[in-house]
Design brief:
443 residues; mainly alpha; Cytochrome Bc1 Complex, Chain D, domain 2; 2 domains
C-alpha cells in the first residue's frame, strides 16, 4: 500500500508540474513569416557584410551581429567605431580610439522576419504604426521617410546613424557630418549619401536593377532599398524553427527527460512562459526585471549620468521605468552574455537571478566580458554601485519572486538547449568571400 501511495503521489506531483495545454505555444508554420525574395536576400547578404555602409568604411552589420557569435558579438558591451577585429578579440584602434562602449548588448537576430515582431530594440523605439504615413513610429517622428518594407528594415539601418556604432565621430566623414548636423533624410542627408556610395558601384547597381523593377526602369537607388534588402537577408538567413522543441510541438519527436522537466517548470511553477510566451517565446512586451546596470547606459551626449531607464525613455510613462522588451529565447544558450547590457556571463546564474531579482541582487558579483584592451573613461559599474540607483532599479520589479533550486535551474537550462536550431545557427547563405565595394570581409 505504501508503494502504491508513493507512486500516486509522484504521479499527482508530475501532473501538477506539467503545463496546461493552453500554456504551450502552437507550432511555427510558414504563415508566421513574411515571404522572402531570394534574389533580394542575396543582395542583402552582400550589403550586410560590406563595410561601405559605415561612415569610415570600417564597420559592417556583422561587426556586432556575427555568425561566429550566433548573430551577437560574444561580449557584454562592444566597441563600434574605433575598434579592430571581432568579439572578445576586438580592441581599440590606436589611431582612432573609441569614445565609449556601445550602451546595450547586441541581441541575436533569429526570427526577426516573423510577422509578430512589430517592435524593435530593447526599448521599443521603432514600432509598426499604420496610422503614420511611413507606417512606423520612430525617434525621427514625421521626418521618417516612406519605403521601409518592415520594422526590421527600419531597425536594420538605424545603427548607421549612431556615432559609436557605425557613423563615426563628428567631422570624420560625410555621414557623421550629416548626422551631427541633423541632416538624415532628403537631399544632402546621411541616408542619401550612403545610397550614393552604393549607386556608384556598377555591380551593386546591376543587382538592384535585377531585384527592383522600378530601379531597372530608372528610379535611383534609395536608402530604403538598401535596408529592405538587408532585412530580407536577415529574415532568410536566420529563420529559426527547426529545433528539437519545434519537433516536439509538431509531434515529430520527444524531449530528453531533464529538458521535459525544465519545460514543465518553464511553463508552470517558474512562470517563465508568462512573458516568454508564444511560438517565439516572447510576448514582445516590456518588463522591469532588475537587471544590473553596466556601462554608459542609454543617454544623450549632453547627459552626465549612466542610467538606462529602458522603455520610459520612449513612452514617458512612469510604469515603464527600467522596463525592457522581452527577448525571444531561440538559440539563447548560444547568444551570451545575457541581459540588456550583458551583465550576466553565466546563463544558469542568470536564470536564477531572473526568477528572483531582489534576492539575486544581494549576492550578484559584477561580471562582464569586454573587448580586449579598452578601459572606459567612466566606471562601468558606477550606477549599480550607487545604493540609490540600485534601489530604484530593484523597486521597479513587479513580478512575484520564484525560488529555484539547483535542480530546477539545471532542468530549465536543459529545456533552453532544446531551442537550438543548427540550421539557423549555421546560416543559409553564409559569409560572402568578397563584396562589390572591394573592402575586406571579416571571416
Amino acid at each position: 500500500m505504501k508503494r502504491v501511495s508513493r507512486l500516486a503521489t509522484v504521479a499527482v506531483a508530475a501532473l501538477l508540474a506539467a503545463p496546461a495545454l493552453a500554456d504551450m505555444p502552437k507550432p511555427v508554420t510558414d504563415a508566421d513569416y513574411a515571404a522572402v525574395n531570394l534574389d533580394e536576400a542575396k543582395l542583402g547578404q552582400l550589403l550586410y557584410y560590406d563595410k561601405i555602409l559605415s561612415g569610415n568604411r570600417n564597420i559592417g552589420c556583422d561587426t556586432c551581429h556575427n555568425p561566429k557569435f550566433s548573430t551577437s558579438d560574444g561580449v557584454s558591451l562592444d566597441i563600434g567605431e574605433g575598434g579592430i577585429d571581432l568579439g572578445p578579440a576586438r580592441h581599440p584602434d590606436p589611431n582612432d580610439m573609441p569614445e565609449q562602449r556601445i550602451g546595450r548588448n547586441a541581441p541575436g537576430l533569429f526570427n526577426l522576419g516573423a510577422k509578430s515582431f512589430t517592435i524593435m530594440f530593447d526599448d521599443g523605439r521603432i514600432e509598426a504604426d499604420p496610422s503614420r504615413p511611413s507606417g512606423l513610429r520612430t525617434p525621427m517622428e514625421d521626418e521618417m521617410v516612406r519605403g521601409f518594407a518592415s520594422v526590421l528594415s527600419a531597425q536594420a539601418m538605424f545603427p548607421v546613424l549612431a556615432q559609436d556604432e557605425m557613423a563615426g565621430n563628428a567631422a570624420e566623414n560625410d555621414i557623421s557630418k550629416f548626422v551631427r548636423e541633423g541632416q538624415i533624410t532628403g537631399p544632402g542627408g546621411a541616408w542619401e549619401a550612403i545610397a550614393a556610395r552604393i549607386s556608384a558601384i556598377p555591380a551593386y547597381k546591376a543587382m538592384f536593377a535585377k531585384v527592383y523593377p522600378d530601379i531597372a526602369a530608372g528610379r535611383p537607388i534609395a536608402f530604403t532599398d538598401i535596408s529592405n534588402a538587408i532585412a530580407a537577408f536577415v529574415a532568410f538567413e536566420w529563420r529559426s524553427d527547426q529545433s528539437p522543441f519545434d519537433a516536439y510541438l509538431r509531434h515529430q519527436g520527444d524531449l530528453p527527460p531533464l529538458a521535459k522537466t525544465g519545460m514543465n517548470l518553464f511553463y508552470g511553477r517558474a512562470g517563465c512562459g508568462t512573458c516568454h510566451s508564444g511560438p517565439f517565446l516572447t510576448d514582445n512586451e516590456f518588463h522591469a526585471m532588475g537587471e544590473p546596470q553596466l556601462g554608459p547606459g542609454r543617454t544623450e551626449r549632453f547627459e552626465t549620468n549612466q542610467r538606462d531607464i529602458g522603455r520610459y525613455r520612449v513612452s514617458n510613462n512612469p510604469a515603464d521605468m527600467y522596463a525592457f522588451r522581452t527577448p525571444s529565447l531561440r538559440n539563447v544558450t548560444e547568444t551570451g552574455p545575457w541581459g540588456h547590457d550583458g551583465a550576466h556571463t553565466d546563463l544558469r546564474a542568470f536564470i536564477r537571478y531572473h526568477a528572483d531579482p531582489v534576492t539575486g541582487a544581494e549576492s550578484y558579483a559584477p561580471q562582464a566580458t569586454f573587448p580586449a584592451g579598452y578601459v572606459a573613461a567612466k566606471p562601468d559599474w558606477a550606477v549599480w554601485n550607487d545604493p540609490a540607483e540600485r534601489k530604484a532599479i530593484l523597486d521597479a520589479v513587479t513580478t512575484p519572486p520564484v525560488k529555484l533550486s539547483d535542480d530546477d535551474v539545471n532542468a530549465i537550462y536543459a529545456f533552453l538547449e532544446t531551442l537550438k536550431d543548427p540550421a539557423a545557427l549555421k546560416g543559409r547563405l553564409g559569409v560572402p568571400a568578397a563584396v562589390p565595394s572591394g573592402l575586406p570581409v571579416d571571416h
